[in-house]
Amino acid sequence: MLKKKKICFFAKVKNAKYLKLRQWYKNDIEILKKLEYKVVVATKFDEIPFNCDLYFSWFTTASILPLVIAKIVRKPIIIIAGGSEVVNDYFGYLSKSWYIRLIIKINLKYADAVLAVSKNILKEIERFKVKNAMLLYNGIDTEKFSPTDSKKDIILSCTRLDSHTYKGKKIELLLKSIPYVIKKFPKQKFVIIGEKGDAYIKTKFLIKKLNISNNINLLGPVPNDTMKQYFNQALICIQPTRYEAFGFAIAEAMSCGIPVITTNVGAVPEIVGNCGIYVNNDPKILAEKIIYLLKNKLVREKIGKNAHERIKKYFSIEKRKNGLKKILIKMNF
Fold it and tell me: pTM of the predicted model, to two decimals?
């Protein structure tokens, strides 16, 4: 019997529990195991073994340690370009300190393969003159995240409440749209799922100021295994954003057959296509779109059905698995 090749999966997180809260990590760990590799998971430098056959690391800002070890032991490393850190803008690459920019450049230059999670990200890293860059979309578990006949009564948004995402996910835009919505639908409930970070108090203050406390629930973090039940309770998913490298919450909501209201930026149009509704920065416009969908069940159902079919066709976890398999074969691994 052939010995399984060993892959070190590295993700720099504060606590290993976040590997279960972040579906992109969880998916790739499961994919590598399904491809019959022995997977060793590391979240800290001292957890990275020196006896692996390949190193697989998430994000160009966080992969310098596995890169160094991979080069020391002369084994290949795959780095996932999965975030805005490679985007040439004030919220991405330009916002980083000089040494983080240097780390990004080193990781992109010396990785044996850089996998971009969208065409948008692939285009961004081309300016770094990366030789081994290729597209591999994130994958959604369309069997798990699928439409159901559950009772739908909430409007859902998924975002961490920290200083970075407060602006990035346009939390103020969402909150300021709610008073307009509840004029028409006084009992409508909104739910925000995500960690309660340093913008939690600021968010609570705005909620109180807008007098919408009875209509919104800041639920906190939810394990990804139970996210489906919240998606399936949702009439609409609201995910306005300044930028998305892929848009996992958007894609998961679509896979559950929920109409998504979002913004036409970054990789969002790649994922959503014409199977969602786009808005600008005007809370009144956002409220109008929400009200329109609340009033039109058939429209909601049509958009949701088309959204599910789009994710299943182009962004399933099976497609990511098959794509990664081809890449590994190409690397003679």
Answer: 0.93
